[in-house]
């Protein structure tokens, strides 16, 4: 079968769904690979690089979609892309079926088989190698620190130089999931003093192991809402949490927020008053912009200055590190392809008895198969 890689069409999207190193591996599994011309441009991968790895280059999107049995993409397809898709074709990409019912109907009408990489059952340890949510969150957490460092007027590490003594920057990370932990590790490696908080007590050890200090809210309530995710906290907890965050806001130079609750708007953790209380020149990077933001003053997609504080609300942090995120994403999709093609004969088999594959499959031959039942084995 032929795997096709279109150029991403979402404005500003720089990632691409495969890279030359992975093209070689897909070919070893028995597939042929076609790449739309200039698909890798924004990630610094040229057509010649793909060709050297064994891919063929096709001139335009229409040809790519029409001649591919399976399409690998990053962003979910637009209605135009679905219309280019082969009837009965297969697709692997981010889909977010819960937020995109119309797209799901269009994909079903085309009798497609679609594996939504965002629907991977993450509690299966076997699925970790395919977990693009984790790899993209890791890149984003790293990039959030780079954005903070770029907007901040001082060093992260403390220094004693002939020109004077420089104190280390203080960084507070709100939410210590995958992205938050990546941010903690990156900020600590640059030499900052890092503190972090999460409603799930279980992450405290991980914060410490990455070089951070876990700061507790003075209120007993467990924040786990099942499946490793958070729940909405009680009003009493939220009040106590706001008091602690207000104190941190006065003390630190940089706040990075990553707090999300599945299916709910992002919790508002940083109020306008807290922003006002920060030192001039401080920076907030709000990674929850797409879900409404953790900070009241965030403008999703933009960097703004409010009360002398730069608030970065970019929603494309992974795309801003396009080569790295494309390489990791491509590797996640390769690991998935291995699972779909155990016979290594260049033909995929979407085995609905397999927990991981079942979870990912949101349409099969035109039937909507989302949401999947919870996986049997953990
Ligand atoms: P996420 O992006 O949904 O949330 C980010 C963090 O925000 C979470 O740690 C959450 O607890 C925290 N948060 C939510 N509300 C908050 C509040 N009011 N105040 C402070 N913090 C708040 O989470 P994620 O990064 O996708 O990870 C979710 C979980 O899934 C983690 O436990 C992670 O380890 C787990 N996970 C497991 C696997 C695996 O085992 N294969 C793979 C990936 C992720």
Automatic annotation (TrEMBL):
Keywords, in A-Z order: Cell inner membrane, Cell membrane, Membrane, NAD, NADP, Nucleotide-binding, Translocase, Transmembrane, Transmembrane helix
NAD is among the record's keywords: yes
Sequence intervals crossing the membrane: 171-194
Record-annotated Alanine dehydrogenase/pyridine nucleotide transhydrogenase NAD(H)-binding domain positions: 149-313
Enzymatic class: translocase
Coarse class of the protein's main subcellular location: membrane
EC number: 7.1.1.1
Residue ranges of every copy of the Alanine dehydrogenase/pyridine nucleotide transhydrogenase N-terminal domain listed in the record: 4-140
Localisation per UniProt entry: Cell inner membrane
Topology of this chain in the membrane: Multi-pass membrane protein
Catalytic activity: NAD(+) + NADPH + H(+)(in) = NADH + NADP(+) + H(+)(out)
Protein family: Belongs to the AlaDH/PNT family.
Function noted in UniProt: The transhydrogenation between NADH and NADP is coupled to respiration and ATP hydrolysis and functions as a proton pump across the membrane.
Annotated protein name in UniProt: NAD(P) transhydrogenase subunit alpha
């Amino acid at each position: 079968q032929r795997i096709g890689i279109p150029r991403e069409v979402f404005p500003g999207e720089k990632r691409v769904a495969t890279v030359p190193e992975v093209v070689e591996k897909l070919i070893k599994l028995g597939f042929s690979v076609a790449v739309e011309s200039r698909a890798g441009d924004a990630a610094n991968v040229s057509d010649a690089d793909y060709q050297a790895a064994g891919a063929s280059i096709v001139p335009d999107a229409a040809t790519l979609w029409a001649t591919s049995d399976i399409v690998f993409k990053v962003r979910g397809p637009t209605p135009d892309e679905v219309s280019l898709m082969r009837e009965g074709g297969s697709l692997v990409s981010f889909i977010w079926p819960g937020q995109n019912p119309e797209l799901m109907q269009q994909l079903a009408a085309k009798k497609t088989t679609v594996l939504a990489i965002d629907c991977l059952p993450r509690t299966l340890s076997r699925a970790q190698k395919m977990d693009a949510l984790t790899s993209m969150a890791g890149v984003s957490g790293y990039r959030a620190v780079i954005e903070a460092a770029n907007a901040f007027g001082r060093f992260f590490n403390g220094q004693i130089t002939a020109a004077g003594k420089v104190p280390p920057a203080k960084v507070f990370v709100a939410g210590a999931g995958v992205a938050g932990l990546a941010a903690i590790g990156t900020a600590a490696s640059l030499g900052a003093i890092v503190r972090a908080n999460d409603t799930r007590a279980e992450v405290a050890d991980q914060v410490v192991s990455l070089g951070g200090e876990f700061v507790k809210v003075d209120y007993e309530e467990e924040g786990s809402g099942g499946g490793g995710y958070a729940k909405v906290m009680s009003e009493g907890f939220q009040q106590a949490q706001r008091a602690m965050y207000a104190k941190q806001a006065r003390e630190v130079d940089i706040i990075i927020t990553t707090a999300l609750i599945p299916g709910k708007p992002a919790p508002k953790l940083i109020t306008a008053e807290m922003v006002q209380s920060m030192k001039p020149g401080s920076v907030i990077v709000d990674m929850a912009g797409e879900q409404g933001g953790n900070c009241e003053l965030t403008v999703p997609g933009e960097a703004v200055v409010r009360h002398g504080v730069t608030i970065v609300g970019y929603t494309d942090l992974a795309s801003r590190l396009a080569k790295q995120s494309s390489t990791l994403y491509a590797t996640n999709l390769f690991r998935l392809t291995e699972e779909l093609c155990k016979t290594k004969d260049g033909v995929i088999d979407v085995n609905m008895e397999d927990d991981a594959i079942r979870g990912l499959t949101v349409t099969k031959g035109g039937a909507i198969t989302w949401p999947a039942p919870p996986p049997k084995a953990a």
